[in-house]
Amino acid sequence: MLEDLKRRGVEDVLFFCVDGLKGFKEVIADVYPQSIVQRCMVHMVRSSTRFVKDKDIKAVCADLRKIYTSATMRKVTKAKGAWTDEKALTKQLFLALTTNEKSWKRQAFNWKTVQKELMEQFGERFSKWIDS
């Protein structure tokens, strides 16, 4: 599938959001070596509910949904105690902004700053796709 995307003209991908399928991360690294791979939120929630009693799953999922669909950046960062590195935090904030921006009637909060940071992180890989 990734080779087909590349043949059809997808030159670069900054982020991939994938399930926990074994080996997928390695395949992505072979086809798009500069891409960052992140685990899908739905799959992370499903994995975490393995440790929850059956009677509590609906309530836990409802609470988690409030966290990952919230409109403020504080709720996004408050829900997670720590990140593996700065890249992980940047990815989480970027994805939260991108997801929430679709439902906002105004431009994403501090989007110019986010764009600047993405430009610093990815340089030409990011800037060539942005309208000036």
Helix and strand topology:
Blueprint: H1 2-7, E1 15-18, H2 24-31, E2 36-39, H3 41-48, H4 57-68, H5 73-78, H6 86-101, H7 111-122, H8 124-127
Parallel strand pairs: 1-2
Class by helix and strand content?
A: mainly alpha
Taking the sheet with the most strands, its summary is: 2 strands, parallel
Run of helices and strands: HEHEHHHHHH
Radius of gyration: 17 Å
Provide the low-confidence segments as ranges: none
Strand proportion: 5-15%
Strand order of the largest sheet: 1-2
* Arithmetic mean of pLDDT: 79
Global geometry = globular
Number of distinct helices? 8
Total beta-strand segments? 2
Compute the number of structural domains.
3
N-end to C-end Cα span: 32 Å
Helical percentage: 40-55%
In short:
The chain has 132 residues and is mainly alpha-helical.
